[in-house]
Design brief:
The structure is a homotetramer of 266-residue chains. The first copy, chain A, is α+β, with helices and mostly antiparallel strands and 266 residues long. The first copy, chain A, has 2 domains: 100 residues, Immunoglobulin-like; 139 residues, Roll (C8orf32 fold), CATH 3.10.620.30. In chain A, 20% of the residues lie in helices and 41% in strands. Chain A has 6 helices and 13 strands. In chain A, strands 1, 2, 3, 4, 5, 6 and 13 form a 7-stranded antiparallel β-sheet that branches. In chain A, helix 4 crosses helix 5. Chains in contact: A-B, A-D, B-C, C-D. At the A-D interface, helix 2 and helix 4 of A face helix 2 and helix 4 of D. Chains A, B, C, D: This is Transglutaminase family protein. Chains A, B, C, D: InterPro entries: Papain-like_cys_pep_sf, Transglutaminase-like.
Chain lengths: 266, 266, 266, 266
């Protein structure tokens, strides 16, 4: 049983069309859940909030916001989850280069660093390369940076390490994608980003930062890269982030994770 | 009634896993259709060919090829088509930056060139900007080039003009995507790439090159950019293109197209 | 008569080879001048400091520093200056693309924004474009960013606006280069960077930020871009900036500068 | 004794300002030399040709050309040469990143591939890395590509391998620069580009392609990268290359060169 919540406050200075990706995916068994959206402290009209379902059970909330201070508070209790099946198109779709996982540009680089490794050795090679070479440095990267920029600067956060691992794996023929998640035990607590790899006919999760316990993760969004999973997308108008708080607690002891077992998340 | 065909010959020098996107989409009314795959002149075993269905009725053929000369011959007769509906996620998904349509990097540039235009004026502005500024130059671009590179070099083919228009439109809030198509009347004849924009609740097609008659187009693949629609993707192994032929004929007179009417394709 | 000074303090954590560009150029009439280099408060051995003369009277101080806190304090009083002559090679050298002024990539962009303008109209056009389009935003740029990145992000500091103006002008056939300077009256006070353009056989200075009074500027370094003029270059070893202070005062009233007169600096 | 010549023919379609770098440097002992410039077969007025001297004895010829077919024919006989001395500023200037040798972006990459190597081991490591990893592929690169693009694509010509070696060495603290040269014995014959490295107080030449005999090289231009050494720069107007021929013959046997001895050129 895991209890998660997030609170995002924005200053909307021009009427804005916003997409939030904070609700847990439909792959989770949701015991209870609340989503509250207020503007300057008063509830926003329900018609201004639309829930959309993206691929793989991802849920988005599209909010049409007038100017003011917008607050999106979400909480849920999750009792379990079902792993996503590997669909036949996954084998093709998640080999393609994407905006922040430019595996086509990094094809030779992936070969240089991972050599002729195959299968799980290759996956472990990519994970270790990121762990050993990418310095965890909040604030070092720009939203427009992708795997190439991370490869050159060797700095970043979970999003950046994940993008680089995904690009390396796709370049070497292993389908890989990004998953945003609530991560009990994560320090500092934040929305987390991890990698899913398609091996032996199933999706397994790996953590490019080594900071989270994977069995405790609660899936939010699943996609090609951060373009599909960002907790906030400003479609139009203007809004500036004021504060953000994330909480994720597991009622059971946090499962120990050495990062190398094969783990699936729901 | 349109008769289309394509023939792709490859030299496979290491056993290869290949994905072809040459069959017309399920949005078309297909009167008859043949797909023949041979290796060194003999039919390839049927088990080596798998048809996959991607989003929006796109059909892919994944081929496991031993070494030799691989030939993929496709032909179809299409009597009509049904336009794709705009789904609710389309409004979000096709605003996201993608590998070759880096709308996030080009946000300021789009504003510089298109200014405060809105709606159809904005769409027409983007189309005209590409027509007037991008020189049609086969061989000028690299497969790893995206909209930014095309914007800087001002050269490219249908793929490149389309990527730039899509990036401009997404940056300005209009969902846009890439469609590969057979294009009766196209000179020189080749696989064509056009743009679909989501306006007034429906997907309309625009042609960044002005070379095709849009009402005659036959849809093949639909996606974020060329990563989703390339006629050939080499997943693993090694294969070099030897020859490629494309044919597309309409039995009726080719519809006149000034490029500016609102046209939907199936 | 202008009194200028700067104080740079670094934490040297691995023995380092450092190059400082803080002394005023030989084009200035220097009434008095002091340079003091200390390590952990004690004067550094004179043999560890070498003065080098770069092109155009630029003076560099190369310092071999052991670990510790290194402090470089410079002050000078300048009574006048002689403008640099335009040398024949300047007409060729300062048209070439350079690391941070990638005029070759920006050739089409320069044409888009400046059109067929020529001569001083072109110079004024480039200056105005930067003033109107680049938001002054300390901390927004990375040391590896050049004119292209500034063009895309539309944010930066004096270095970035100057790089973009230089790239635009070179792309349109006007030799241009970067000058670092002490700038009396600058707010906030800092090392400043301005552009020199070669027009009518002489070098004139323009300010892409509009923040400085050009007649009061005191030249430090002159070069192709910030690779030649940075106040600190870490050649080897490791050093982190602790504090930096810059002061520049003119004893006469600060000359009014509307940014558009033709001004030469010495 | 070496006999070299080159012939460049251009179609000038708009009056053009051109800079040629085809004459051998003043570091060579020139026994005889001719430079003939004709337009549509008639000699161009002498006033339209200006010889400029760049750094390090480089000679440029700036030509003001009306429209027509411009032919620049150069030949020389060289009996010997004097190596260039290492000047004190060379130690700083040739460590700086430049347009096509973006050593700042490639700092981590250089460390990944060359590790803690120092001195001549480092130089040999960079040369071998380029020899083993960059495929010689005429036509694969674009004039705007620099070391980063070559690093990613692993393809290029002498210019590209040299840029990458220079970037790697500068990133690791060894001053390095580009030299264009006539190269007796080169196959296919063309203008050649090699690297000079500053070691033990002197400039030594290394060849990133392994195609030339270094002792036989005849220096043309010396600079930071191809921005300083290109055989043709179109400053303004419009001109398209029609044909180019290069010849370089040594009257003595071509010195054997295994690529690893320490060689200086004049």
């Amino acid at each position: 049983m895991r209890d998660i919540s997030s609170n995002v406050r924005l200053s909307v200075t021009e009427p804005a069309d916003l997409v939030f990706s904070v609700a847990v995916a439909f792959t989770n068994t949701i015991e209870s859940e609340t989503l509250t959206v207020t503007l300057d402290g008063s509830p926003l009209d329900a018609s201004a909030i639309v829930e959309l379902t993206d691929a793989h059970g991802t849920r988005l909330h599209r909010v049409t916001a007038p100017t003011g201070v917008l607050e999106v508070a979400y909480s849920a209790t999750v009792s379990g989850s079902t792993p996503l099946d590997a669909e036949s198109m996954d084998h093709v779709e998640y080999l393609r280069p994407s905006r922040y996982c430019d595996s086509d540009r990094l094809a030779n680089v992936a070969w240089s660093h991972l050599g002729p490794k195959q299968g799980w050795d290759l996956v472990e090679g990519a994970r270790r390369w990121a762990l050993e070479n990418i310095v965890y440095a909040p604030g070092s990267t720009d939203p427009v940076d992708g795997a190439l920029e991370t490869y050159l600067s060797r700095e970043g956060v979970c999003r950046d390490s994940s993008h680089l691992i995904i690009a390396f794996l796709r370049a070497r023929g292993i389908p890989a994608r990004l998953v945003s998640a609530y991560a009990p035990g994560l320090l500092p607590m934040d929305f987390h980003a991890v990698v899913e790899v398609l091996m032996d006919g199933a999706w397994f999760v790996i953590d490019g930062t080594g900071l989270a316990s994977r069995p405790a993760l609660v899936r939010i969004a699943t996609g090609r890269d951060a373009a599909d999973t960002a907790f906030l997308t400003i479609v139009s108008g203007r809004a500036d982030l004021l504060t953000m708080e994330v909480s994720a607690i597991t009622r059971e002891p946090l499962p120990y994770d050495d990062g190398r077992q094969q783990v699936r998340i729901g």
